[in-house]
Amino acid sequence: MNYNAGFRIIFYILFLFFGFSCNKNKPLFEPVSPEHSGIHFNNRIVESDSLNVLDVSNIYNGGGVGIGDFNRDGLPDIYFTGNLVPNKLYINKGNFSFNDISKEAGVEGNGEWSRGVSVVDINNDGWPDIYVSTTILKNPQKRKNLLYVNQGIDKKGIPHFKEMAAEYGLDDTSYSTSAAFFDYDNDGDLDMYLVVNEIVNSSLPNVFHKIARDGSFPSSGRLYRNDWNDSLKHPVFKDVSKQAGVGIEGYGHSVAICDINKDGWKDIYVTNDYLPNDLLLINNHDGTFTDHLSDYFKHTSSNAMGVDINDINNDGLEDVMTLDMNPEDNYRKKMMLNSDSYQTYQNSDFFGYNYQYVRNTLQLNRGPRINGEDSIGNVIFSDISFYAGVAETDWSWTPLLTDFDNDGFRDLFITNGFPKDVTDHDFVTFRNHASTLVSKSDLLKQIPEVKLHNYIYHNNGNLTLTDVSRDWGMMQPTFSNGAAYADLDNDGDLDMIINNINDDAGIFRNTSRENSKTANHFLQIYFTGDTLNRNGFGTWVELHYNHGKVQVYENTPYRGYLSSVQDMAHFGLGKVNNIDSVLIKWPGKKMQLLRNVKCDQVLHVNIRDAKMTYSYDKSPLASGTLFKEISDSANIHYQHSERDFIDFNIQKLLPHKFSEYGPAVAVGDIDGNGLDDMVVGGSSFHSAQLFLQQTDGKFIQKPLEGKDTVNKKSHDLGLLLFDADGDGDPDLFIASGGYENESNAPAYQDRLYVNDGKGNFTLDSDALPRNFTSKFCVRAADFDRDGDLDLFISGRVDPGNYPKPVSSFIYRNDSKNGKIHFTDVTSLVARDLIGAGMVCDAVWTDFNNDGWPDLILAGEWMPITILKNNKGVFQNVSRDSGIGDSLGWWNSIAAGDFDNDGDIDYIVGNLGGNSFFRGNAEFPVRVYGKDFDKNGIYDMIPSLYLPDREGNKKEFPAQGRDDLLRQINAMRKKFPDYKSFATATMSQVLTEEERKGALTLEANDFQTALLRNEGGGKFSLVALPAEAQLSEINGIVVDDFDGDGNQDIVLNGNDFGTEVSVGRYDAFNGLYLKGDGTGNFGVRSILQSGIFIPGNGKALVKLKSAGGQYLLAASQNRGKLKLFKLKKTVKVIDLGPLDVRANILYKSGKRRVQECYYGSSYLSQSGRFLLLGDSVRSVEIINSKGAIRKLNP
After folding, report:
1. What residues of the chain score a pLDDT lower than 50?
2. What is the pLDDT of residue 2?
3. What are phi and psi for residue 13, nearest 5 degrees?
């Protein structure tokens, strides 16, 4: 008896019994045993003294899977590449039974170390061929890539192959990983890009240096052009890498081909390991490529493995998924991930690298950007991996985006595992100290394994995916690398084939069609191209169905890692059983349109039937946008500047900087010419800037403080233009803040500049109380209704003592006879502001309609705090508001009557859900503050809930051991090695005794939301759409931009000053949300809105142009000030200095209330005017004294 076979049968029986017996429904995937399938491929690797992971770092990078119908019997067959074992070809006999014909077919790999497999009909004879990329072995003759050309079948139906790489010019001897065949020069035939990964020097991959871009570095990709040879009657491929400009240094793992910018020419995406960036090689239409990675992607994965490009949200735009090696559980994170290094961030800037983070990235395609004057620019992407829930899957290799359950949205499959984790911190320490004292074999025994289950995620259709690995039957621990999907049994769903190291290959049968055929409809499309491109590679397909829904697919089989999936387009359609139209755009601009297509069938389409044509020609201008950027034409060419101060040198574990929060923007008529001007805040050593609008609509820029700011230590944060002295012109208040100076330093004293009426300002050093708190925003209102404007100033942080709460302040305006004087009356009228917390923003607002301005605060580690104005004295009513338990990193607040019910609602900006710091009421994020080691330095330790090794969520420190020891060196005794720290929960990191006297704060709500006023002092929080949750929200402007009577929202956001390992919050590009009048909002794309603010977005304000047009100005930290014009002709009504409220009546009878502010949203003060649409019948404007004026615009 074969005991191994018997054991495997028993294993599979037990697996099926215990795995499925408790579930009423079968898992989506069922494993097919080797005994049933006949597939006994095992990519077994046995280490030796000369061949091991310490000497050959890429030894465990695995092998691939190639799918093709090699005998043309209508069933997809499977080809596996092996490293130390022969490659194998299995012919599909049906019912998941296969025959191994590898030897007979002649495709076992010639003893080479095979890596990737690319299935292609190289000679367009209708028989799929096999191209194998080889690597590792030092002898170049043993690294010749292999081309197995299919010679057809014999009498037994077995295909035979002839190795012809040399004849075709494809016997490349570089250390190649994988190849993709595509038509790069649009001449109709298929060329080839080859991925190369050669470790020339073991230390070089992780050392910053100038990247070689001229092809001189051995480890750089290669491009081969297909040139027909008449005498040979087949193509011969020529290396054109140098002239094409693709020879850029890197350590390539994968390649994906797509027309990413939709210009009709194929582009190339290459994932690179180690420090070199991934490559996005944009086709220049002339046989050359230019790397535009940093233009399209704001950051990428650091150690990018596999890549797949497909549309995950059915918006018709292709998204990009790349994999890295960030573990999901706390133990693996703490044992593997490196400590923070701000120098890495600085080196990226210095050497011209794009930013990279150790995590998977799911890059959401936001469509083309809109540049100045409506010009259409390049596509822009946003990494949403944390929000989507797919950032952390450990040592991952293959990503595959396809619809496994046929519900109409593409799911995600990920392979996982590595036999020897050389990144394990304890092993690295052991190796550094003992490598000369122990044998190689003993050293290898110390390396831990990373044998993990593969991941599979269900697409929820809302930019999030759910881990369904257990429910869908993917929990077997393996060392998996290459993988491919195919409909092995032709039943309309996609099965999985996985190449494993030191385990049998995985074959998984998809049961979705078996479970339900009414909710899992599908359509599959096979392509027959012309004689130069038999399989129609590069064809674009669009499905239109069910009242405007769309799915798209770009035909290429080279997806994931080292592998070729089944060469067809597969669409899941859920309950839809009929498709309105199928549009097929072939290469060469031929097109065919199929109407009223039934589901649950296989379509065979042929280019011969394409009688229509199409064009990629498109207008260079966006004509349908709501806004147009006019910065250049308005003579605004401002680039914000500030020094790169490293807050993390003061407190090592800060989650973000405080020195990178400006610039603020304030709007008012500074020079008395009747036009809106702007002040933009400065920073240490940089003056604030005045932008004075001229009658031609252009702005003149001049510094507030002149050119000599070399001794300026104050960092400008909050700005406010208001008439402090009653002379009719706006004076300027500047709140001083930041983190650069020590706690309670004079540099944090606020400043008030008096305007002479012509835009010349003089500092009044006696006007304000002495106050050395590091502050943030400033807001004005007549809180005591005495006819002048009083001030609220928020305290933001105590430098060096984060997260200690600080006080905010109310300054009463006691100015008389032109002498400005403000008195701090906080302790008299608002005691709850003393030690209130780290307040980021505030709004004076009458939330209860009693005629007295109340105060609502947004802050970090705080609830939204509501202070009710009881005739000049404030009472904290947050606890009874219904939202007192919603603790967030609230960052911004702006008001509007979004549901048209006559009271004021609010938009509250927050961190969002696209961060490592994610929490809820059950699993909050926390921070602990105290001088734990009693060395005179205030320590802080952030924590969050992460899965432990068993998958149970527990509270762990957010950072790793090295980072913690830099802050609290005394912890070294408690955690002498990395393992002891990796298993320690927060109760072990900080004992009950150590927590005595410590400050503990938490956050349980990170969603940017509508704060709906329910009346009676009650509120509710309603999350804004997913697109508003992708980054930190800062500046907010609320108005009825499209004139439909409902208030809309424009948002500015991002934060680049985050803790380095977490990475920059950069997914935001500005956002326009269209209100429907009921408190719901619709998302508008960049191409629809014209709003594009891609940088470190901060303030956002509205102002009027000289011609009466509506403008928006957006600031960006260390970026450009952008000015947008609303294209629509509008009516505006100027407000008086004390106007506080407007009641708007529409011709339809609808009513809406709108408040009038001196400052609203993050570091922003907008112009004081009302925007009115054509549907407005009348307006009542009320001032702080209760006087009413009526207008009929």
Report:
1. 1-23
2. 45
3. -65, -45
